[in-house]
Design brief:
Order of helices and strands: HHHHEEHEHHEEH
Radius of gyration: 33 Å
Number of helices: 8
Distance between the termini: 107 Å
Strand content: 5-15%
Number of strands: 5
Structural class: alpha+beta
Shape: elongated
Largest sheet: 5 strands, antiparallel
Helix content: 55-70%
Amino acid sequence: MDVRLVIHRGLTFTLALAVSLVPVGGLLALAWPRLSDQLDADELGALIVAVVAVGILIPLTRDAAGRLLDRYVYRTRVNYQRTLREASEALTRVLDLKVLLQFVNYTVATSTNSEGAAVYLQAGTSEPGPRLRRAIAEKRHAQSHFDTPEAAPEEIIAALTQTKDLLLTDEIAHERPTIARERLHEALSRLNWALVLPLISEARVIGAIVVGPKLSGDPFYPQDLDLLMTLANQAGVAVKNAQLYAQVLLANEHLNNIVSTIESGSWRSTRAGRSPSSTGPRRS
């Protein structure tokens, strides 16, 4: 049991209860002279108990109503520990890059209930400079402005390469304005990217996970950021392992093709080098 979580929830409930009882107590104080004249002592006691009970039930009914309405609106409650545990198990056993990217993208999009998510991976080294190309993308709302171009903007790549940390559009908007940060914020806003998470392996940025705004309009809370950053750190290692595994499979396939070609050529050479044997010595 997390003691800090229990204390936090207890203090929250107590504070909400106290705040809800303050106006009730004020109304009772104002109406007390008239109530004492009109009601008996037993009736006054029952009224006070009823008012206090209503005040106590206000926070509980508020939370219950919120959970009920959450089924019909976009806000969701995520079990962060369970999500992270299931993601860790999957990321350690999946070596197929395509399946891995689908899992990462789906987990990010559903855990945040965002307008969409996408994964960008580093392009081949033949191109000059770092390049992040779209590997997979999902747009979860038909009318969303969440955009996923084929290549990530240079401003975002430069910021990820420099900081190796997440980029939160709302925070960048409140930073000290510089030319570079203004261009970065403009690029993020243009694509409607609320959050960008770096995929890091061996201290190098090999990709990025981009997340659109939440469908509920809520910001990304610290719990969301902790979950997503932990997931991105694990995904960076998993993606690198999947890429290496794919290279090993490709090399083995190429080697098998070479061996098959050599064996086939040797067999043909042997067949061609054989001369038809005669059935016996020639007679003159």
